[in-house]
Structures are given as structure tokens and as C-alpha cells.
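Dear support,

We are seeing what looks like truncated structure output for some complexes. This example has two components. We would appreciate it if you could run it in full and send us the complete C-alpha cell output so we can diff it against ours.
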Amino acid sequence: MNEQHQALIRRFYSAFANHDAETMASCYHENVEFSDPGFGLLKGTEAGDMWQMLVERGGKDLVIIYSDVKADDDTGKAYWEAIYRFSKTGRKVHNKIHATFGFKDGLIIKHEDQFDFWAWSRMALGVPGILLGWSGFLKKKVQTQAKGLLKRYRNKKAA
Amino acid sequence: MNSLEQLRYPIGRFRRPEQITSKGIEYWIGQIETLPARFRNIAESLSEEQLDTRYRPEGWTLRQVIHHVPDSHVNSYIRFKWTLTEDKPTIKAYNEVAWAELQDYSSVPIETSLNFLEILHARWVPLLKSLSEQDLAKTFIHPEHGKEVALNINIALYAWHGEHHLGHLAQTVQLNKW
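Here is the complete output from our reference environment:
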């Protein structure tokens, strides 16, 4: 058990629960690699910006609940749930996510979120998700749209 | 997740939240508030034969599940009242397995328990919504493990409990293609 790494994970999710993306980003190493089924792979500041975008889009209705935080010197894990309205369809999503972490210099260098993409697509997209949730096609389409959204967000932020 | 675990815990086991936020409390109370209607929606679609189907091998029948939920929640409701009006009370546990074998679980129409759940939550939810941060931090002692349990965690637990048993009904309907 590494208490500092556990505290770092708790700081990350506590900030998330309080809609504080800046503190979340401060938990990441500058060379962090993040991946999940929605965005695919994001590197460096893309990851922090992604959380900022999600926090902003989630608005005041975004609920984050986390538990089961564990960490040793090299790796860590947590379980978290997000409840929000998916902006594209207006549908309510309750996503359940298993997160794993890697650490460097007291910060998160690797962060992987895993969730049931089929269940997510059924909640977020409704019927099209039920029909297509299994397919790599939909996953690719969602990742392309999510990355496009992040790119536009980052361009707007930089402007 | 293996299939028996999935049958037993359709929404997963309860995970103790590491941080309780006002948003989380609001969400859980919302789940508790809407449970009776969602429970009725599924329960009323079941035939007498379907009600006698077990949600897992050696598990309760759906009829027992439907009678269990208000019995469990009325115990919880009373624990909230005790905790709000007494100093760190030791609550009374109850034997839910033995309760489910009592005659009323097989003889009373499910409609009675669906009404009971609605009426109970109509009293419980306004109480939950009225709790201050200080109230939510109040604790009771559970005699089974001797530990203190805070009301805020208990709200999370009972939100999960309702969804857990609703999951038994929904999962059984889905697996049997009813």
C-alpha cells in the first residue's frame, strides 16, 4: 500500500465530485496517457482538457461517486460512477467505471478507464445503441465524435 | 462476473462511497423516491406463476422479493427516526431470511406490499430531504458488527438496496423473455 498514491487518487476524484477540473489536471504527470472506450487514447494536456470539457458539459447535474481506492508503489485502482445527461441525446446516463493508474514522480502517468460500452451506448444513445452497441463501428464513430468535440474545445480554449 | 454472482447481484454489490457529496445524497434520495413506481411497473406485469419464480437457484421467489423490500425499508425508516431522536442508538437487527418464510409472504397479495412501499416512501422521502448536514452525520450502532453507521451512508445503502431488488425482478423478466 502506498498512502501518497492513494491520497492522490482520492484528490483526483474528490475534485471531480466537486467539479474542479483544474485540480484533477494537477494530479496528472505532463506525459500522462489516458484511455477509455469513449475517447480512445489521449496524451498529455489532452487528458486534463477532456475532464475540463466533461465537467463543463455535465454542468451542475453531474454526480460523481467513487469507492474502492487502492494503490501501491507502481499501480492503483478505483471504482467510480458518473450520473449525467448525455448532451447529444439528452438521455440520462449512469456509467460504472473501473479505473487503473500508473504513477511517476508522485503524479498519475497512466490512467485507464474501463466500462461496458454496450451498456453505455444503450443509456446514452437509446435504440441505436441497443442495435449497434456491440459493433466496433459504433465504438469508432463515438471515439471520432468525442475526439472531434475535444479538439474543438481545445481550439476554442487556445483562441 | 460469473453468472451466479450476476444473478445474485444484478447491479453489483454495494460499494461504500469514499466521499459523500450533496449531489450524491440528492441522487440517492431521487432513486428512493422513484423506486415504488418503478417497482410497481414491473411487479404488476407478472402473473401468479411468474411471481413464484426464483431469481436465482435457491434464492427468493419474486413474490418474496416484493414483500421483502417494504419490510426492509420500514426497518430502515425506523432506524432513521431513532438516530435522529436519540444519541447514537443501537438499532435492532432483524432476520430477513426468517421473515421471508413467514406465512404472509405467500398469502398476502403483492398489491398490498406495493401500496405499503408507496405509503412508506411517501413518509420516508420527505424526512430524508429535510436532513441537514449535521443530521446526515448522525450515527447508529449496528449490533451485528458493533460499528457506527452514519445516516448519509445509510441513504446510499438503501438507494442501492432498492435498485438491487428491482434488478432481481428486471433480470428475471429479461432472462425468461417474459
